[in-house]
Every structure is written in structure tokens, then in C-alpha cells.
Here is the input.
Amino acid sequence: MLRKLVLVFVVIGAFCARDAGAASVTLTSPAIQTVVRPAGPFSVILEWDGTVNLDPGYTLNSVGASFLRDAANDAVPDLNIHPFFTTTGVLLRVVINSTQPLGLYNLNIDLASPSFMEFTECPSVGICNSDTVRSTKFDYGINVIDPNAVPEPASLVLLGTGLAVGARRWRRRLSR
Here is the structure.
């Protein structure tokens, strides 16, 4: 009796685990990428590489990417976001040009959740509807930094102090 009961729980558990979906995304590049804003008429291409692991018996149905926003709810202007309909290799490409404002852009429109790229899957055989569709996603963002960043004054003071101490020690050694 106990063996039958355990078998029933194992079968139910396996069925529930299958329904929950095991699709996932494995990235081979950082989720948040830092880029130096290009100068002049040039652009920089950022790519998120990885693999989308679909559930057995499911195929890729659609892909989509949310727009990038900063903490002040400003969308990144003139940003070219290109999600790819694939499960391996380049999953997402973002083109940064020289007019991009500096800052960290990693929020969704609600400013509470991170920006993301989503993959939806449907059964290979049968009907694809709201009861059978499944999805998985990964969060992404960009940090646009200034190419002409100037060190802060405290860093320059530390550097100067270190050089002065080093010069003093060197002069003492020479005088001995």
C-alpha cells in the first residue's frame, strides 16, 4: 500500500514539475554591459550571447525585449534593440550611438522591475494558447559611460600624496 502511495506522489510530482516548465536562459555575456559612448558618427554594438533551453516537446514561438529606462523614467533615445528569433548564439543586440545620454539603463517601464528579453514556447504538437504557452526571460541593461572621464579630486590627492612620499623616500636613500 505504501509503495503504491509513493508511486502516486512521484507521478503527480513529475506531472506538476512538467507543467511548471523548465525552460531557461543561459547567458555567456554579462547581463549588464558597460560601454564607452562613441564619439562622432560611430556606433557601438552590444550583444548578449547565450542559449535558450526549451522544454521537451516545445518549440520557440516568439521573442521580445522591453525598452531600457533609467531611474528617472527616461527611455534611451534612438536606441536600436534587436531581439533574435533563435535559441543559440546572439540572442539580443543593442546599438549605441554618440547621442546616447550617459547613465545606467536597466529598468522596465514600471521602474521597479529590470528590463528583460522574453522567449515564449508552445507545444510542438497541438494548440498554442494561454493555457499551453510558457515563457522564460533574462534581465539586461547597459551602462553608458563618458569616454573623457576626469578623475575625482580625492583620487588626484591620493595619487599626489603617494608620489610625494615615494620621492621623499628616494631622496633619503640617495643621501645615505
The CA atoms of residues 50 and 92 lie 9 Å apart. Residues 1-19 have pLDDT under 50 and may be disordered. Helices lie at 2-20, 153-175.
